[in-house]
Here is the input.
Amino acid sequence: MQNPWLWSIGGGILLSLSWPPLPFFFLVFIALLPWIKLVHFAKNEHKSLGWLFLRIYIGVFIWNLLTTWWVWFASPEGSIAMFIANSLLLCIPFLAYFITLKNVQKNAAISLLFYFLAIEYFHFRWDAAYPWLTLGHVFAKFPIMVQWYEYTGVLGGTLWVVLINLSIYHVFTGKEKKLSLLLKTILPVVLSVVLYGIEFQKKTDGKPINTVIIQPNLDPYNSKFEKAPLEITMELMEQIDKNTDSNTHFVISPETAIPGSFEIQNWMNESKIMHFKSLCAKYPKTAFITGLETHEFYNTNTNSKPTLTARRTDDTTLFYDVYNTAGFFYNNVPPVFYHKSKLVPGVEKMPFPKTLGWLEDYAINLGGTSGSLGSSKKPLIFTRPDSISTFALICYESIFGEFTTRFTNQEVDFISIITNDGWWGNTFGYKQHLYYGSLRAIENRKWIARSANTGISCFINPLGEITQATNWWEKQEIKQTIYSKKEATFYQKQGDLIGIISSIVSVLFFLGVVVQVKTKLKK
Here is the structure.
């Protein structure tokens, strides 16, 4: 322990090397060891909380920087703010672990596991939710390792990772049996292989659904401003028309594939939409899903109350909300619109707007539309007249496991993901986003049809395997027959039980610390 800074930096580098799309996921099982060692060293050497915080923070910041550096391409200022804030949150489990070790003797060694899970559970739910670096995501490129996510979700992966790291540490300090460590390591792998075999036999069960995915390949920084929205819409329609026939059930286009915002209440007066509706007349048995930019007005003179995200016009009585929308179109049926509800902090919404609203000028531009957006308040299912149904996760929403189950619990047939990953350039960003979709397929045991503007578009089967992946930055279309899967998994029914239990146990550990501190003060 000659130089604690090397342990700090080493942990950040090991975690970064283990992250997809790199193939070294196995490094994650030792990646936390340097930071666990730092915590125990700080305790034994009577170092301060500030001393430990600085060293843990630098390591976590390096992990954030090396893994999500590509955010810089969208906004240098915003990315720096994101790195700083996310690193602060992910330090908390280690600081809480240090405090617990100092004050609680019984079972304190395992407290890091519950603190880590509780913080990740919290990070999925608060106003600044950015759970991109949830430890359970580390296996996304190798879905065969985590087939048991249909029971636990990604927090089960975090549990496995932290438990193995703690066990290895305690093996080397003489507090853990090697056989116990072996069982903790091997049993999830055995279970995963068994479940893979079972699900492999069922992957083509269910009603066949002929699906077409469109990849328009529009440069989000240039093309959408060089061409008129109607011109882009007509090009998209031409691409769809070439790949649709009377046997097609669904055609899926990406996020904001139809640009140029229109008032959602007056869609019938919007030429782009009416042209798109003509496809429905030409293919009356085909359902179309596409990304849109929409808005809605509120007039205070007519007692129409604006939302917290509404923007003021020059008329002080008139407000409007802007939406990142998925539209569902079917012949002779009014379109159905779902507005993205898991919005990217600092991109599509400003967290804690009453306090931080002034920071909107520095918003990171990662989605189809930037600035504080309105959102749908509940899940919305897109259902054909023959009862075949899906829903559209819009971009960032696809990294939220339990959020996805709010849709799938309504027994949809398959999952759609529409996204625009061109904002990050040819970096690790769009690849990580793609692989995270494999975990949603496993958690729900459903097929996924993924349409990305610039790539990678693909189909993902219920085993998490990616098929027909398109090339990056290339105009393409793909077709495949996928299969209906209506039965619900345990995770769909129960959600993040691991996170709930860990949060409760973390509170109990914290109360134990408070009791011990009060007892010491009395003495």
Q: What stands out?
A: The domain at 208-488 is CATH 3.60.110.10 (Nitrilase/N-carbamoyl-D-aminoacid amidohydrolase). The longest strand covers residues 287-299. Residues 345 and 477 are 32 Å apart (CA to CA).
